């Protein structure tokens, strides 16, 4: 929720701070939605074929890389290379978008694989009960860091750092073999 809320709340102001119009900000934000559709199908299919854990971690690394590219657009701001600045900004948002919903879908599949579908509701429900905390922190911290520095650089860097930590934590999970009981779905008898 942290990195998603930063984009949801601060993306258009970030783009306008670079000197682009609000329309460019809104249009570039819409690219996240388009590329998230492609990303969820592509990365979801790859996770079906190659395993969830590594592809989930890759999705977080991909989003971190997208934020790093967005940060480069800030670094070249004011250089007079307006076309390059916009190209890099759009490339970054496309990379962020490619991982956007893939993380959600792969997380659900990984939780089902790891703990069984009979426990998926509790696990996924708990995750989404906690996610608003990260969202609130991401939005608020992004604003605070902007007010403190008059720049979104630290906010974007914090996204890269937290996404990298997330990928590392996912990769640090030890795989375990599942029993057939883990895979079973309880049958509810109707009366």
Q: In percent, how much strand structure appears in the residues?
A: under 5%
Distance between the amino and carboxyl termini: 41 Å
What Rg is obtained from the alpha carbons, in whole angstroms? 19 Å
Low-confidence sequence ranges: none
Number of strands: 0
Rough outline: elongated
Q: What can be said about this structure in brief?
A:
The chain has helices spanning 2-17, 22-50, 52-75, 82-100, 102-115, 120-149, 153-171, 180-183. It is mostly helical.
Describe the 3D structure.
It is a single chain. By secondary structure, the chain is mainly alpha-helical. The protein is built from eight helices and no strands. Helix 1 packs antiparallel against helix 2. The longest helix is centred in the last third of the chain and has 30 residues. It is elongated and about 65 Å long. The mean pLDDT is 85.
Keywords:
mainly alpha; 191 residues
Topology:
Elements: H1 2-17, H2 22-50, H3 52-75, H4 82-100, H5 102-115, H6 120-149, H7 153-171, H8 180-183
Helix pairs in contact: 1-2, 1-6, 2-3, 2-4, 2-5, 3-4, 3-5, 3-7, 6-7
């Amino acid at each position: 929720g942290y990195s998603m809320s930063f984009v949801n709340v601060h993306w258009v102001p970030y783009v306008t701070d670079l000197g682009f119009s609000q329309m460019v900000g809104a249009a570039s934000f819409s690219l996240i939605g388009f590329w998230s559709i492609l990303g969820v199908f592509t990365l979801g299919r790859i996770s079906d074929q190659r395993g969830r854990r590594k592809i989930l971690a890759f999705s977080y690394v991909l989003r971190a890389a997208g934020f790093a590219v967005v940060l480069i657009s800030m670094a070249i701001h004011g250089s007079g290379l307006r076309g390059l600045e916009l190209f890099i900004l759009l490339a970054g948002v496309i990379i962020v978008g490619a991982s956007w919903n893939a993380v959600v879908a792969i997380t659900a599949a990984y939780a089902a694989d790891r703990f069984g579908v009979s426990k998926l509701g509790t696990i996924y429900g708990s995750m989404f009960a906690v996610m608003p905390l990260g969202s609130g922190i991401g939005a608020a911290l992004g604003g605070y860091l902007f007010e403190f520095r008059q720049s979104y650089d630290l906010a974007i860097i914090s996204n890269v750092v937290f996404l990298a930590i997330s990928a590392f934590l996912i990769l640090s999970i030890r795989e375990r073999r599942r029993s057939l009981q883990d895979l079973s779905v309880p049958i509810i008898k109707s009366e």
